[in-house]
Structure formats: structure tokens, C-alpha cells
Specification:
This protein has about 160 residues and is an alpha+beta fold. The protein has 7 helices and 5 strands. It has helices spanning about 1-10, 15-25, 35-40, 50-60, 65-80, 120-135, 150-159, and strands spanning about 85-90, 90-95, 105-110, 115-120, 145. Strands 4-3-5 form a 3-stranded mixed β-sheet, with no helix packed on it. It has a two-stranded antiparallel sheet with strand order 1-2. The protein is flat, with a radius of gyration of 18 Å. About 15% of the residues are buried.
């Protein structure tokens, strides 16, 4: 029975793997087992992550990959449109997978560091307009609003 579950799990990520394989081949690079492991793990994460978190997840699963392999793979995943940089915090860039998701942005509390996502049709319209006007092939969007969440504002006024 576990074999069936594993097959379903592999099939679950097939579109992302195929997109990445095609991209890698077009770039004249090899689709290595290490790159596949990294892509599969990223698409099991349903939240923002940084390199250290990804590395620890892989280590905890017995995958012995170097951080260098992760750092070399992330820009490729960004360029082919599967993930994007989200925000920089505590000296680390955080990422999220975006394939199959609507364009969205983030609002982040400067006090408690809570991050909330929001969508707005205007984000997609701006992306399309800028791409068309300047002729860019956009690979991602990093739109972040910074401020203080309602809970932290209450604490500030109570202090």
C-alpha cells in the first residue's frame, strides 16, 4: 500500500517537475536527482520558506544535499516561474511557490513579523501592463507592505 501512496505523491507534483525539466533542458543544463529532490520538497511546503528551513527539512528526511545545491537551484526555479522571492528578513530571503497561484502580495508586521497574503486584481493588471509596455518577461513579483498589525498596535497603545 505505501507504494501506491508514493506513486500518487509523485504524480501530484508532475506539472512542476515537467516545467522545470523542460526549462533546464532549454538552458543546456542537466536535470539532476538533487534538483528533483529540491523541487519536490519545495512543492510540499505550503508556506514561505528560507534556505535553512528547506535544508533542515531535507536533512530530516535523510536527504544529504548541500546548501550550495539549494542556492544554485533556487534562481533556476525563480527564472522558470515556479517560485518567487517574497521578503528578506533576519539576513535570509524567503521564498514561496507560485505556480498555479494567483498573483498576490504581502503585508508584514514590523513588530511580531506576521505575514498576511492578499490578492487584488490590480496586481495582475499592473504586471500585464508593465510586461507589455517594457517588453519584459516577468518571472515574479515582490510587492510587500510594511506596518503594524492590529494586535501590535493595541499593545503599543496599552503600554
Amino acid at each position: 500500500m505505501p507504494k501506491t501512496k508514493d506513486k500518487n505523491k509523485a504524480a501530484e507534483h508532475l506539472p512542476e517537475i515537467e516545467i522545470f525539466k523542460d526549462y533546464i533542458r532549454r538552458k543546456g543544463l542537466r536535470f539532476t536527482p538533487e534538483r528533483e529532490i529540491i523541487v519536490r520538497e519545495i512543492f510540499e511546503i505550503h508556506d514561505h520558506f528560507d534556505v535553512d528551513e528547506l535544508y533542515l527539512r531535507l536533512r530530516n528526511k535523510g536527504k544529504k544535499l548541500s546548501k550550495a545545491s539549494i542556492y544554485r537551484t533556487l534562481p533556476l526555479l525563480i527564472d522558470c516561474g515556479l517560485i518567487q522571492e517574497v521578503y528578506h528578513e533576519d539576513g535570509h530571503m524567503h521564498y514561496e511557490h507560485v505556480y498555479g497561484h494567483e498573483p498576490h502580495a504581502h503585508v508584514r508586521c514590523l513588530e511580531c513579523r506576521k505575514v498576511e497574503e492578499f490578492t487584488d486584481q490590480r496586481i495582475k493588471e499592473i504586471e500585464e501592463h508593465i510586461s507589455k509596455e517594457f517588453g519584459y518577461r516577468l518571472t515574479g513579483l515582490r510587492f510587500e507592505l510594511l506596518g503594524y498589525c492590529p494586535d501590535c498596535l493595541k499593545k503599543q497603545y496599552l503600554s
